[in-house]
Every structure is written in structure tokens, then in C-alpha cells.
Amino acid sequence: xxxxxxxxxxxKSFGKQLIWKDVTxxxxxxxxxxxxxxxxxxxxxxxxxxxxxxxxxxxxxxxxGVDIAxxxxxxxxxxxxxxxxxxxxxxxxxxxxxxxxxxxxLREHTKKGESEIRDIVMxxxxxxxxxxxxxxxPGEISGGMRKRAGLARALVLDPEILxxxxxxxxxxxVRTAFINQLFIDLNAQIDATFLIVTHDxxxxxxxxxxxxxxxxxxxAMFGPREMLLSSEEPxxxxxxxxxxxxxxxMSEEKDADELAAEKDMGLPPLPPIPMQLEPSNGIxxxxxxxxxxxxxxxxxTPPPGSFQPDPTTPMSSSQANPTEAPH
Length: 327
Known about the structure:
Layout (H helix, E strand, L loop, with lengths): L4 E10 L2 E11 L4 E5 L6 H8 L7 E6 L2 E2 L5 H8 L2 E4 L11 H12 L4 H14 L15 H13 L5 E5 L7 H18 L2 E5 L3 H6 L3 E6 L2 E7 H5 L4 H7 L7 E2 L2 E2 L2 H8 L29 H5 L19 H4 L7
Parallel strand pairs: 3-8, 3-9, 6-7, 7-8
Antiparallel strand pairs: 1-2, 1-4, 4-5, 9-10, 11-12
Helix pairs in contact: 3-4, 3-5, 4-5
């Protein structure tokens, strides 16, 4: 079962360069959250701050009552056992085969015997679809397989919080679709709290329960997926719908002349909100909400065509009746 992560007033600078200021949000226990933002907005810095690799200048990160920004090294070591981390490139040890890479945290942080370690490693490798590849070196497999191996390693200590940094980086659309489904299925099985940093808009629109957007050195918005996908806030609307009209330009912000010229053009309509991905077995996740629930509860009319099922995929009962009352 996952735990919530409370982030309060987080501020970080490197020298005179402010990365972000007064970031405040809570990652709900057991839910999947995605953090977006233009390149250079400090998304990876945020992940490193959450596990104590980087200390913030101000603010707190509270997990199970412990503020990892100010706690002792001993307490930080214990809190880190709650985390699993998937780095951008998988971060495999090149001289070790996949089995030893995945087994590394167990050998480093537990006193388990090799027989038990083997059982755990093979279970996690089966979970990510890598049975039969355990004796291969990282250099002998594809980028997608390295990411899955990195995910298996992140899972061996049965983490309650999973931090995932740009899982779609370098992957083709098919492999990205497979890894997105894997995240949904994993969350259904282990109920861990997920935070995924990504640039992939399609993944953001279909995978998470919650979405956050870092922009211009602050957190522009964080909340339920439907809230952000129906938002009229200019930065959120532009970024989540991959539109050129809005305050974001090639050099982060557009100048006044560009913005003035756009006023006469009018905003393009919001695209329909897609269905959220379902677990492969069709059984809703513990914290998954019925499609359209947030919009109904908050009196928001979603864009026309929202919550229409993909005709190529089977529907669950909640998908088949998206207008039913929320659970």
C-alpha cells in the first residue's frame, strides 16, 4: 500500500539560478501522478529532492511524519527504503547481467539468502516481461528492455513510492504504450504511490490519476486528471493539449507582441478528454475513479466527445457507463 507525500513550500536554487519556488502539493497515497513541464523547469531536480539527493533551500517533504529535508542521515536511510526509482536510462551496471542488476538492492539492503533473492528477482522480472533475459548484459538489449530491467530493480524491495523519470525517453510509440500499460497493471497489483516525470502528452492524458505542471519557476497547477484536461488556464491548456497558441513560446515565454497578435486568432477548442487506461484484467484499480466523475462532482462540462471508449479495446463496466454516478 502506498503512502502520501506532502510537499510544502519547496524552493530550490543553484547559485543565483532559481529552479522553482514555493512548490506545494500532496501526492495521494496509492495513486498515479504525472509531473509535466517544459525542458529545464526542474522536474528531475524535484525527483532528486524527494529522495533526499538534493536538499531544498526552503520547504518540507514529509513522508510518514518525517521531513526528509531536515531529518538525520539515519532517518533518511530508513525512509529511502520506501522508494523505488526508475532513472531515465535505466542506470544499469554495465558489467553485471540483468539478474545481478535487479538483485543488487536485495544484496545491499537485506540479509536474504541467495535462494530467496533468486525467487524475488525472477518474480519481478516476470512482472516486467523479462524472463529469459536475466543472463544478458545491459549492452546486449534494447532501450525498452533496459527500462523494464530498471523497473524490476526498482520493485525488488516492494516500494510504497515509485519515482519514474521520463520512462518514454528514447522509446517508440509501441514500446511507450506497453510501458504505460505496465504502470497501470503494476499500480493495480501493488497500490504504490507513483510519480512519473514525462514529456509525453498522450501518456499524460491517459495514464495518471493526477497531473502537475511546472512552469516559469513555479507549480502552475496540480490536481485530478480531468481538472487539468478541462482547464481554461492558458499555460495548462496550451501545454496539455500541445497547442502553439498560448503563453509558452520557443524561448519559454512569448513576448507581448506575439501574445497580442494571438488575441485576434481565438483559442482552438479543447480536445475531448480520453478514457483513462484500465488494468489488463479489466478490474478497476483501488483508487481509479469512473470516467467523468470529477467533472460531474464539480459541475464542469467536459469538451464534446469526452470519455468515448476506444473501439479497439475491451470496455469495463465503468467505461461502458461513463455517465453513471461516481462510486
